[in-house]
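Technical annex, item 7. During the second reporting period the consortium partners agreed on a shared format for inverse folding records so that results from different sites could be compared directly. Each record opens with the tokenized structure and is followed by the designed sequence. A conforming record, contributed by the partner at site C, is shown below for reference.
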């Protein structure tokens, strides 16, 4: 079992930056691939970024490539999402997820956090 708690969301102006954190409890965090999804009002939840167990492999949605960076610190049981050059269309609830299989992270994965709200004003 893995419990995930996101933090770092908030209100920011377009062009600004935020860093989201996802703290994991439970055993063997370093054996899990991690990911970030987001869900905007009236839209389906969509994949944002994924990272494998040691950070050696990352993937991004086309809409965030070059602006967002996913990283992890296995010593702190935490995964991060650095979001730069934010746009109003980035407004959404952001969720982190975890799965032992990296390919499953982009599809949803086994474990989810409760989400953190990000709002970008124009």
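Designed sequence (site C submission):
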């Amino acid at each position: 079992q893995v419990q995930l708690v996101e933090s770092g969301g908030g209100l920011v102006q377009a062009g600004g930056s935020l860093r989201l954190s996802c703290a994991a409890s439970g055993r063997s965090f370093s054996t899990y691939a991690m990911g970030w999804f987001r869900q905007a009002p009236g839209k389906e939840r969509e994949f944002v970024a994924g990272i494998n167990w040691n950070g050696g492999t990352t993937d991004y949605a086309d809409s965030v490539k070059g602006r967002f960076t996913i990283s992890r610190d296995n010593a702190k049981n935490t995964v991060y999402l650095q979001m730069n050059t934010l746009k109003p269309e980035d407004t959404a609830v952001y969720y982190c997820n975890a799965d032992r299989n990296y390919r499953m992270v982009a599809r949803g994965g086994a474990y989810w956090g409760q989400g953190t709200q990000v709002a970008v004003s124009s």
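DSSP finds one helix and eleven strands in the chain. The radius of gyration is 13 Å. All partners now use this format for quarterly exchanges.
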